[in-house]
């Protein structure tokens, strides 16, 4: 099997140690496509997290039977070619839900309290306790609008319990009324969620019909002074329109873990004072990685043995 992503040695060891007895792993030397091809050559199984799985990589092995994503999104895998070749593709549904949900709430609080800006001023020797009363805001009493209510969205709801917030949501599949009541959330049409929330948080996959979901028109529907959180996929948002809304003060802040083109080399959004940004690491915790390794190995072993894997995980059937 081949691992296409660059991991620290300790994390790579966790992946190897979770493999069934007798399996051997080839490690890509870098994200250069040539190195990816070299690692994939002859592999029965490919592990890929952030690394794209292109047609050229897939063609490198005529033995390839299965691709296991070390996460949820499969938008960087050539699914059409996998179907053509009969290569199975699986994700790890819900595997990162807890760390991503925690990261989401952290970004909400960081934006409300202007944590990054305050930290920079403290490092510069400023003491601004009284001024902080003018710009720090509380989560209590806010309306949180969740766009998408899958594994992560539900985990966010659970973590917001006790914060005295009103939670609205939109999802293409509305929950039963009794489940909504149990969770303490209200369904609304997409544009109503966006227009009514103090904080809009995105929890959707990147698909043709969700690309640029928050375009300039929808960003203008958000409440003046609202906050946008995106720990899902960068392509869900028109980044130029978002930057304009933040520069002009129409939106108070944004907490961003994902961007349309990654990795970032130069980008306006992380340089704005009212943006708190992280490098697509919401789900990347040391606590969670051993669970990722275990789930990935179980799926791969079961698939190659002709045994079933969870329906929520299987994306492309042979």
Structural class: alpha/beta
Count of alpha/pi helices: 13
Helix content: 25-40%
Give a quick account of the main beta sheet: strands, pairing sense, barrel closure: 7 strands, parallel
The low-confidence runs, each spanning 5 or more residues with pLDDT under 50, are none
CATH topology of the largest domain: Rossmann fold
- What's the CATH architecture of the largest domain? 3-Layer(aba) Sandwich
Radius of gyration: 21 Å
Apparent shape: globular
Total beta strand runs: 13
CATH H-tier superfamily of the largest domain: NAD(P)-binding Rossmann-like Domain
Order of helices and strands: EHEHEHEHEHHHEHEHEHEHEHEEHE
Strand content: 15-25%
